[in-house]
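Tutorial, part two.
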Amino acid sequence: MPGAARADDGTATQVRGGEPAVLMSGIRKSFGGVPVLRGVDFDLARGEVHALAGGNGAGKSTLMKVLQGVHPADEGTIAVDGRRVEISSIHDARAAGIGMVFQEFSLVPSLTVAQNIFLGAEPLRRSRLIDDRAAVAAAGAVLEEMGVDVDPRAVVGDLSTAYRQLTEIAKALAQDARVLIMDEPTASLARQESEALFALIRRLAARGIAVVYISHRMEEVYRIADRITVLRDGTRLLTRPLSEITPEQIVEGIVGKALDGQPVHRQVDGAGLGAVLLQAHAVHAPPKVRDVSFTLHAGEVIGLAGLMGSGRSELARALFGIDEVTSGEISVRGRRADLSSPRKAIAAGLALIPEDRREQGLVLEHSVADNLLLPVLGELRRGPLLHARRARERSADLIRRFAVKVADPARPVSLLSGGNQQKVVLAKWMGTDPDVLILDEPTAGIDIGTKNEIVTMIRTLAAAGKGVIVISSEYPELLAVSDRVLIIRDGTIAGEYSREQIADEEFLELAVQGATS
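Running the prediction step on this input gives:
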C-alpha cells in the first residue's frame, strides 16, 4: 500500500499527510432491535484499495452505508482526512468527498444515463436552467475514461443490468469523490468489462483516491486490493495486508469453517440423460435473439456464456415469455408450447431466476413469507381467502429447505442480506416444482459459502431429473455446473462445447471472445 505503515494487526497507522483518509471507530448499528454492527473499527489510507469481505449478513454493506450517510450510526465516530465529521445523509457524505457504488442501484429508470450521472448536481446555464448538452458531454467524458461504450442519452430503464452497474460507477466518479466505495461492482459484468474496471481502479488509486472494494470474489480481491478487512456477525474479525494472508484463511474467516475449495464438475454420462425437456428451433426474439436452436435434456445443465450485451439474458426472457418470440418454435416434453407469457411458461413447467433479484425477483416491501408464496397462491386458496395454516407451513418449509436466515418471516424481504434475498428468489420458484429452471447470474453478489450451496443445489436438481440452464459471468462456477456450454454472440449460438472439451477457464474465455480455432 503506497505511503502507509502497518501495525502488527495490519491496521494502517501512518499515511501520506499523517492521517488516514477514513477512520471509523466503534460503529454500532441495529435495525428493529437486531444488532447488525457491534462496535466495528475500520480505516482506509489515501491511494489504497481496501477489500471488505464477509458472509451475507456480516455487516459489510451496512458499515459502508453508515459511511455514505444512508444509515446513521447508533454509536461511534467517523473521521475523514483527520477531521471528525458528522454524516447523517448522503449529502453530508458527498460534501466530505465520499461516493458509493451501491449493489442495489440508486438510478432513476426513466432518466437518461447523463441525467442519472449528474442527478442533483446538474450543470447549469447562465439562465440557471439545466444544461443538458453539457451534461451529455461530461457524462461521455466519464464513460470514455472508464472505457465504456454507452450512449449518455440512452434511457437507463432500457439498459441491461450490467450497463446500469457501469452507469452507477460513472455517477460516483463524476462527483470527484476522494473516497470511493464499490459494493460488488463486477457482480453483473462479464470478464472483459471487469478488466476495464480494474484498470480504472488502479488509475484512481494512483491519483490518491481511496477505494473500498466489497467483493466475494477472492481472485478479484487479490488482483486489485492492498489490504483486506473481514467482518463476521457484525464484528471485525481481522485486518491484514493481502501479502500476509492466504485465500483459504480468508474463506475460513468468512464462512467460519474450512471449505473444500472451488466446486468441481461431476461429469454426467450423456447416455444416461433423460428425454428432451426443452427444444428451441430457429427462435427469433428481436432485437437481441436471432435464430437460436438447442435442446435441453432431463438431468442436464447447460451453461450460457457470452459478453455483456450478447443476448444471454434476452434468450432467457424469451424462453420465459417476457420478450415476444416473433418466429421459430419452442417445444416442452416433445410438444409445441405456447410460452407467450410468464403465466403460460410457468404452467408449462418453466421457472426463471432473473439477474436482478431486487428489481425483478422480489417485492421488496412485502414480507419474506409473502414473497415465497407469490407463485403458489392459487394452491393455497380457501374460497376467496388464503388457507393461513397451509401458507405458514409452506413458507416455513421453503425457509428450512433453502436455509434462509431470517428471524421472522413477517419481516420485509428488503431487510435481508443479498445472499438470503437470492435464496428467497430460488426458494420461491422451486416451490412451483418446475421441470426446467433458468438461472440468470444466480451467484451474483453472494458469499462464498452460499455460492457453494447454490452450485450443489443446481447439480442436485439435475440429478433429480430437472433440466437447468445457467447464465453466469463467473467461469469457475459455470464450468463446475455445466454439462454443455453454449457460446452466445450477437444474439445467436456461435459455438457449443461439451464439458470435457473445455480444458480450463482460459479456453472458455477464448471461445467467448471468438478466438478459438
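The chain has three domains: 5-97+177-255, 110-175, 270-513. In part three we will examine how such features are distributed along the chain.
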